[in-house]
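Ex. 9. Protein: Metalloprotease PmbA.
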Amino acid sequence: MSDVAISQDASRRELDRLAQLAEDVIRRARAAGASQAEVSASIDTGLNVNVRLGEVETVEHTRDRGFGLTVYFGRRKGSASTADLHADSIQATLEQACAIARYTEEDPAAGLADATRMATQFPDLDLWHPWAIDTADAIALGQDIEAAGRAHAGISQSDGASVQMGESVSVYANSHGFVGRERGTRHSLSLSLIAGDEAGMQRDYWYDTARSADDFISAQMLGDKAAERTLARMGARRLSTRQSPVLFAPEVARGLIGHLIGAVSGGALYRRASFLLDHAGKQVMPSWLTIVERPHLMRGQGSGAFDAEGVATRDSALIESGVLARYVLGSYSARKLGLVSTGNAGGIHNLVVEPGSVDGATEDFRGMLQRLGTGLLVTEVMGQGVNTITGDYSRGASGFWVDKGEIAYPVEEITIAANLRDMLAGIVAVGSDVDKRSHLLTGSILLDRMTIAGE
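Predicted structure tokens for Metalloprotease PmbA:
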């Protein structure tokens, strides 16, 4: 068994304890004069093993506790938190939150989410899969992954393999009488390798993440994938400056969707810091493209029955036939904008970019390369060159030059640039090669044109 894992029964006991603690603190906050109160409490456990060149580099066992309390005295808000669940620390946290609230300025948007929006159904979304792996077995698995990668001819060095096990139990409760309990597991494997010859060195990696360790690819497959990606980068060239179609590999494409989410999220909107300000109901992407939030996917990386304020989650289109159907709002940002919460306090839950194209065809990665024809395949982006206010996008990149639908050679030390408004509108196709290792579920994305700055 794992040295740190929480058993099935123990997880339920922990949830009961956290729920009782949260309800008790809310009662005490009301007794202290708070008109409203909310509590978030969690216990996270984990095991993290790193192996390099067959030897153990680090072994880390974690057991972290968190307790956060927010109280409202009318429209005045105070928040405090602690990593200690002992009675004295909880009392001090309560006193600090109340003291802060009594002296802060009133904020008309402050307060709990609408009581009528609280979740009332809590389906089992199959998120709890403790991994019964102990330290010795985790080390052995890391060594197997690394050995599989290093066995490939041309691999000269390893940056190490990692095996991580993680479990979390948490409770959110508020003075509406809502008590929401969640428990989930998230485990991961990774390997980073180096290849080198007289022309230089290249580094690449691969990883897998899953709710259940039963869903992992094998150690051999992960090692092979990391080695293949690393060796494929050998002999990388720079490109001359040009414009061309660009295909984002799935693991990079989800970053583009992340920029969309950032631009339509409440915080950016009420601060008027978004290039998509006042765009709800307007065409922002091609008319064939739909993006839907699906919070209740079984074993989903972002699945949940309620958001960080207890608001019930539900399936809801974000982009419908290319039109921005709504924003991404919690109750505070919604009030600032004169709107209502979309159940997204704390973020998005499983955003699904539906595959398709301008001509109606749906294609896998090979088909997407054929559709690209001659252009750039991007497999990695670097830097922070994205301005959400203006939409300007300029980032370092590497990947492969594709000629007539076939990968011709690797490229590096280039910059890709455009404006996000044009990038979103210029999507030609979304592949069926969906990367399931994230709550942003998208295949590769083909853009009609970007500027590539190179030599």
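Check your answer against this statement. The chain is about 25% helix and 35% strand.
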